[in-house]
């Protein structure tokens, strides 16, 4: 009986030891994927953070502007019925409160009962206003992306995915909350012919409003 107890306890210790060793070991799949990737992907978290920051900084003149609000119409904006266009109307009112637009009310129509709300750019609004060529949309762009940290690095067979946290600095104080920490991902690919890294997922951060 004592021999059986001894054997059972030995087996239990062995199983626990194997389980702990398995937990401590790095994921074999991730390590294998890293080995398949070119040496250029072998960067530290800080190096990847710098790489992402540099790519944001090259967008639109040293990273400004980067946060865009797109509206499918051009200034001046006309609202003929406040019962419709609710999303756009809320946005226009928010931009007016932020001193980026002015609001003018006009009475029109033969019966003088039709009211038109006209929104025009202020001098401050002109600093942020953008009209994109060959598109019907226009809008406002603000801010500079500041990459705060890299939180996860995941290798795949032909690319690497980086999860990072960032804030958008230099936003109009009356329009958007400052320094709100956000998380996003970007993928990096390597072109053997050009010997360069290419990214997918870094660009303008656009919120669309439809009329």
Explain this structure.
By secondary structure, this protein is α+β, with helices and mostly antiparallel strands. It has a domain at 29-72 and 126-211. Helix content is 30%, strand content 36%. The protein has helices spanning 2-24, 28-36, 45-57, 86-97, 123-128, and strands spanning 67-71, 77-79, 101-108, 114-121, 129-131, 138-142, 144-155, 159-169, 182-191, 196-200, 205-209. It has a four-stranded mixed β-sheet with strand order 5-6-1-11. Strand 9 and strand 10 (196-200) form a beta hairpin. The longest helix has 23 residues, at 2-24. The relative contact order is 0.17. Mean pLDDT is 74; it is low at 1-29.
Main-sheet strand order equals 5-6-1-11
Strand content: 35-45%
Radius of gyration: 27 Å
Q: What's the overall geometry?
A: elongated
Structural class: alpha+beta
SS field, number of helical segments? 5
Instruction: Say how many strands there are.
Output: 11
Largest sheet: number of strands, sense, barrel closure: 4 strands, mixed
Low-confidence sequence ranges: 1-29
N-to-C SSE string, H for helix and E for strand: HHHEEHEEHEEEEEEE
Residue-averaged pLDDT: 74
Helix proportion: 25-40%
Distance between the termini: 83 Å
Question: What's this, in brief?
Answer:
Helices cover 30% and strands 36% of the residues.
Main traits of this protein?
single chain; 211 residues; alpha+beta; elongated; 5 helices
